[in-house]
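Lecture notes, unit on binding sites. The following record was shown on slide 14. It pairs a sequence with coenzyme A.
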Amino acid sequence: MADLPSQIAELWDRASELGPADHDALAVVTEAIDLLDTGQARVAEVDQATGEVIVHEWLKQAILLLFRLRSMETMEVGPFEYVDKLPLKRGYAGAAVRVVPGASARWGSFLGAGVVCMPSYVNIGARVGADTMVDTWATVGSCAQIGERVHLSGGVGIGGVLEPAQAAPVIIEDEAMIGSRCMVTQGARVGRGAVLGEGTILNPSIPVIDAESGDEVGRGHVPPWTVAVQASRRREFAGGEFFLPCVLVLRHLTEGQRHDKAQLNDILRQHGVSA
Ligand SMILES: CC(C)(COP(=O)(O)OP(=O)(O)OC[C@H]1O[C@@H](n2cnc3c(N)ncnc32)[C@H](O)[C@@H]1OP(=O)(O)O)[C@@H](O)C(=O)NCCC(=O)NCCS
């Protein structure tokens, strides 16, 4: 039998013909989603040699196929009723993950050991690395890749990127601190150890500007070991002068340095509270 990626590719080619009656196809897709759920496979990763993001397209295709192949089901928990195609994740104690009531993560997402989920949401294909805090009302969209020892503060919105299958998901690298109510979407990237101030909007169209030099250092990518905040830049249009958002790199940290205000993360973790 062909290997799993080839089987998914073959199913993808005839996706439009498939539906919930195709039990053999569902069995193949379930095998792929189980690999995501247990962390044996991941939708995307940073190539350590080049620093580029590699997307494993077949796993995204497997997720898209899953929605075709599963039917809606009613689930009941006490007085609550839900109707969905996907089950939720299970086995948290065995995985050493803390899940506060009100948090949910879908089957096919991965949560590393030591992850704390305050009432929050983690969608299918997302991966949250060991010892990361997903604080209250934070949402981790489909296929987003969150590193280890990251703090996603209260209300952070990490966008999901499913289609097209080749599109890169959002990447938050190890030890980053994402301030309350930030929105990081459409394959944007936050480098290792970076601190993002509250309310920052980052997507691949948003210029990231170094406050010291005034240079644009990229779009949608906050460099590692920096402190960056939401700012605005002046733009002339035919209709007048307007201010569009940008991200301003306020300071550079030395590698491994935790910004003073980011140490809060450790205190919150020790006491298991959210802010
Ligand atoms: C991003 C952050 C680390 C910046 O802290 P800092 O490096 O100490 O920066 P400062 O407070 O010295 O501020 C430097 C400048 O940036 C501005 N600034 C600070 N935070 C800002 C933000 N989030 N958005 C826009 N501007 C900001 C300040 O007004 C200041 O401007 P000034 O020099 O004209 O006075 C801080 O805002 C922060 O910790 N945010 C995250 C907090 C959070 O979300 N916690 C959640 C868990 S409780």
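Take-home: The domain at 85-271 is CATH 2.160.10.10 (UDP N-Acetylglucosamine Acyltransferase; domain 1).
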